[in-house]
Amino acid sequence: MTNLPTQTNTPHRLSGRPDKQALVSEFKGKPIRGLRTPAVVIDRAIFAQNSARMHDNAKQWGASFRAHVKTHKTAEGVKLQLVSSSDTTYAIVVSTLMEAWEVVNAGLVKDGIVNDILYGLPIPVNRVADLAALSDVTAQSGAVIRILIDHVDQIKFIEEYEKTMNSSRNWSTFLKVDAGSKRAGLDPSSTAFHSLLEVALESPVLTVFGFYCHAGHSYSSTSPEAASKFLTAEVNAVNDAAKLALARSSSPSNDTQFILSVGSTPTAHAATAETNAKLGELLHGKLELHAGNYPLLDLQQLHTGLIDRTRIAQRVLATVISYYPGRGANGTDEALCDAGAIAMSKDTGPSGGFGEVIGKSWRLGRVSQEHGILTRSGTETAAGEDQLRIGDVVQITPAKETMPAW
Which InterPro entries match (predicted)? Predict the structure, then answer.
């Protein structure tokens, strides 16, 4: 007999993007297997524990903390990231304007839970007006919007915008520094960075708040020692940038304190009291640690050797919708489920595959947009409790972070 999931009389209002109360009314008190799939399930207790641990890391490392909210995209998650059993912080990073507006609309800025929002991309020229409007709204609650700059033309465009609008707005700015990942940002030793720094320091519409680095390539770490080396490279990069800024400042003083913002989940995990030795003697600013994946974690983070499985707070529920005996490698079986690239991620991570089925020797081996192919982890034939049947609801640990639309 097939193991059919619990059926629900889901009202039409749950199609599309439902509101929170509609979801609570429909699913509260029902078993997890009764959720419509695919569904992301988060263990709130583990999420909170991971948030508190990161606050501890930042404190031991002698840094303030800025939480990236792109992974979960929920107001509840933002609160847990900022207010933990260990500490409280008020600064976040967003990847999209929608994320920022949802934080505002959820009342987190008005209530004083968030007072510092960084838009986490070098400012697009077609978003300047949008960010200005957001800044005007958050300023009413005493909160600030900060931006990233990594090209002189971005500054020129902001100056022209302010002139056109006859506005005297001042933009709090991080200069984006590259520490070897070759994504956004500039090498502080490059001619381009020196030119950017000169223009930024002299611009009438900017205040250089600090220097920001994200070591995206640190996700290749497989040990605390490797992650620590990436962290050191990040600190060196922003510190070199701050040193140059102090030397170029028209009136440098001991009171000048740039923010040196570094981090990724692997390097933030490596930011401990042990890695803090003598940092204070060498710094040309105040340390800020930032990270985003850490409350949820995934198989990629497990592969770094910096966490264990008990700290992974997320899983994705999927329903088996078809089955293909003998179609896989070495004559193994395959199955089709309703979780694909949209529900999971298009990245496999170093563990191979897009996720692992919890409690079974299956993994999400291939994905299309809306569905995925479950393949055997080994070469043996599935049997007994390890076999999948149409209608089964499986729980998948993602290889990489899942990022639902907000």
Answer: Ala_racemase_N, D-amino_acid_metab_enzyme, D-ser_dehydrat-like_dom, D-ser_dehydrat-like_sf, PLP-binding_barrel
